[in-house]
Design goal:
The chain is mainly alpha-helical. About 60% of the residues lie in helices and about 0% in strands. Helix 3 packs across helix 4, helix 3 packs across helix 8 and helix 4 runs parallel beside helix 6.
């Protein structure tokens, strides 16, 4: 409860100091359907600070050990022009946001069947983000269903489940944008 209060206080502090950065435009994010391209964020006017706050809030909700890696999610999505909520959403379905992984693997994505190990969360996020860009998106898989056929065969529900978490991130982003607009 105390961490939640601190996050809220930090958010309001930043909103008052940097309102233009946080507010962006007042357009609502269109639905986050799995058919929307996952190459880039649907709304680039949302600041990285806001996206980081959204990621932290959702990871906090699930008591995720990945919360310390929120900066890495933002850095990697920016570097590889990915939807910033794609990798955290994949971790949601593959490992319940890092809770169920091969011991000390730092692999919340099920990458390599979950047996590939990384030195820390940041390295795992970097390698999987780069791998998604190079081996999936650059080869024409531009939506979750196309990615899922390669990433998690023979599952017919993987994309739907990843999109469930992406929608949760986008819904949280909408709530934050509404709060920012009020102020």
């Amino acid at each position: 409860m105390r961490k939640k209060l601190i996050i809220i206080l930090i958010f309001f502090f930043v909103v008052f100091l940097f309102p233009k950065k946080i507010r962006g435009n007042n357009n609502k994010v269109a639905g986050s359907s799995a058919k929307i391209s996952v190459l880039k964020d649907n709304n680039r006017n949302i600041s990285n600070f806001t996206k980081k706050l959204v990621i932290k809030r959702i990871l906090y909700k699930y008591n995720s050990p990945l919360i310390e890696a929120a900066d890495s999610f933002i850095d990697v999505c920016t570097k590889y022009n990915l939807d910033c909520y794609l990798l955290p959403s994949i971790s949601g379905i593959e490992s319940t946001f890092g809770h169920f992984i091969y011991p000390n693997s730092y692999n919340p994505f099920g990458w390599g069947g979950g047996y590939i190990t990384f030195k820390d969360w940041s390295e795992g996020i970097e390698i999987v983000g780069k791998g998604l860009k190079k081996n999936y998106l650059d080869k024409g898989a531009v939506d979750l269903y196309q990615i899922g056929k390669i990433y998690a065969p023979p599952s017919t529900t993987w994309a739907y489940k990843v999109d469930f978490f992406r929608k949760e991130f986008y819904n949280e982003e909408s709530k934050i944008n509404e709060l920012a607009r009020i102020f």
